[in-house]
Each structure stands twice: as C-alpha cells, then as structure tokens.
Amino acid sequence: MKGREARVKTYLQKNIQIKGMITYIVLLILAGLLSSCQKSNDSFSLLSEQSTFKQSTAIVPRKIDILWVIDNSGSMNSSQANIASNFRSFIQKFQQKNYDFQIGVTSSDAYLAYHYNDNNRSKLRDGAKISSSVTTSSGFRIIDKNTPSIESTFLTNITQGTLGNGDERVFMSMQHTLQNPLNAAFKRQGSYLAVIIVSDEEDFSHADYQNGISSYYFTENASDPKMYSVQSYVDFLNTFTNSTALIRNYSVSSIYTNNAACRTQLASTAKVSLRNPQLSDLTGGVKASLCGNFADSLQLISDTVLDLASVFQLDREPIPESIVVSVNNSIVPQHAINGWTYEAAANTVSFHGSAVPPADANISITFDPVTVKQ
Length: 374
What we know:
The protein is globular. It is built from 10 helices and 13 strands. Mean pLDDT is 83; it is low at 33-46 and 54-60. The strands form 3 sheets. The chain has a 6-stranded mixed sheet, sandwiched between helices. Strands 1-13-9-10 form a 4-stranded antiparallel sheet, with no helix packed on it. Strands 8-12-11 form a 3-stranded antiparallel sheet. Helix content is 32%, strand content 17%.
C-alpha cells in the first residue's frame, strides 16, 4: 500500500512540473506577442500618400501673367492687325477654364525708358500714339478676366501703331517693362509669366546709343560681341521669376520673320530673326511665323502656356507606378498629350491638353512613397 502511495505521489509531482513548464512557455509566447504589438520608435508603416490641391489657391496651377512685346515700328501695321483679329483663339481657353490671368502690352522701344530716365516710356500700354496729336486709350493698362469687353480692350492695347523707334530692342524692352516700378502690380507673387514677342525685326539689344538710335541697327549683325547675349536674358528671367534648374516659372514665345521668303512677303525692312527664336528655344516657348496662320499660332501658344502653368510638385517622392490622378473625382489617364505625366527629376506631375483642369477643380494625386514613413 505504501508502495502504491509513493508511485501516485511521484506521478502527481511530475504532472505538476509538466503543467508548470507548459504554463511558462505559454506566458513566454504571450509576452512576445504583446511586445510585438507595442508601437516603438523602430516601427514602420508604408501607407499611400495623398497630395490634394485646390486650384484657386496660390499653389500650382498658378495665376498667369502674360506680357505682349509688340514691335511698333513702321512695317508692323498688318501684323498687329492679325494679332488683334485672332485674339479669340488665344484667350478662349483661359476664359473657359476660368483662369486668373493678367495681360499687359509693351512696345519694342520701351527700352528708351532707361536711355531717357523716364519710366513712363516702359509703362504698360493702354493704347497707342496714332499721330502727333491723336492717341487711343482703352483705360486698362492691365487686362484681367473681369475687364469689361476684353477683346475690344485688347484690340486697343495691342494696336501700338507704327510711329515707334526703328531700333527694335524687344529683349531690353521686355526687361525694362518688367522691372519698372510703375508696373509693379503686373507680375504677381507666385504667378507663371508668359512673354509673347511679336516683331518682324531682329532683336538688337545692347547698351550703346546714338541719339537714341542703335549704331548696330544698321549693321544687321546679331552676333556682334557688343550685343547683350540671349543667355543674359534667360539669366534675368530665371532670377525675376524665382525659377530653378528643374522648375521654370516662365516662357518666351516668338512670332517672327522666320525665313527669307517670309521677309519678302512682309516688307523690305523686315529681317530674319535668329535671337528671338533662340530665346524661345531656351525657355520652352513657342516659335511661330509672322507669315503663318495667326489663329493656329495663337492657339498653340495658349495651349502651351496652360500646359506649362499646370504643374504640381509633390511633397514626397512617389513610386511612379503607384500614382493615381483624379480631377473632380474622375480618374485622369497618364498621357503626354491629353493626360498627365510625372517628371522624376523635379518630382512634379503635369497636366496636358484636354486634361488641363479648370481653375475651380479639385485635383487629387495619390501615390505610394518610395521611403517608408516612420
């Protein structure tokens, strides 16, 4: 009997030890699970990022300020008339999409403001001097979307007449107009600047004067070392618009005499320009011929300006394949002509063609970020 009791006692002791070990193992497992569930400084989550922009804010797409630099020399009457009569092709998309735009006009002899120390010569034009005793005026030096009778007002402003100085320096005139404190209200903070040059002459911007007339004008030597370089005006515009190597906040388009045949068609005083199209190439603008279809040229410039202004910079680097873009809750396709594209170097999403959103649209850009979020 005693032997049986001893065996039972031994069995119970072993059973207790086994249960104790099992309990200890279970407790260890539970402790591990609890520890893994607790948030620490080393925990990570990879979640989709979403950048949402409202176009009516100061964030891109921005306000758009458009400066027309018009040759007002003796041979420009027909070209000015063509711009005026086809203006609808340029402005209609800005109006349809309700963009916040401003339009100003200056002339190819506005550079004389510097020579005569008279800023009024480079003040934005609201009309032209028709003769020594007659001038026209629209009353609006800056046209915006709220200006009454926009097209007729632009017609008055753009028709600068043909009594201007025969020494055309469109680049200098552009710079002096933009820097003139009397035009301070024109270039707005954060806006996209679109410059459009219309001239049947070469640009002869340089510092020498001879009674206000350039001595180099008569040489027709656009490569003269005394001329201000085209690159110097790119540098000026980069600084003026706070542009960087990756994001340019402006463009310069040119409507110019593009070949000898066009020169013959226009006037004996017209000159084939090399510098105007070069500035357009360096700034992403449009090159168009004065002898071409003005309606088509102006629409192309308009489309290009809207494309260049419709750029969104993301706040984090995305995995490109994960980007989803929607406008007013409708998915926009990835397409270089009528959709959106991603520029990795600048970390931007750009809209193109028919996909350019209206000014009051809600744009959502959703993506998975490359780096994990702590």
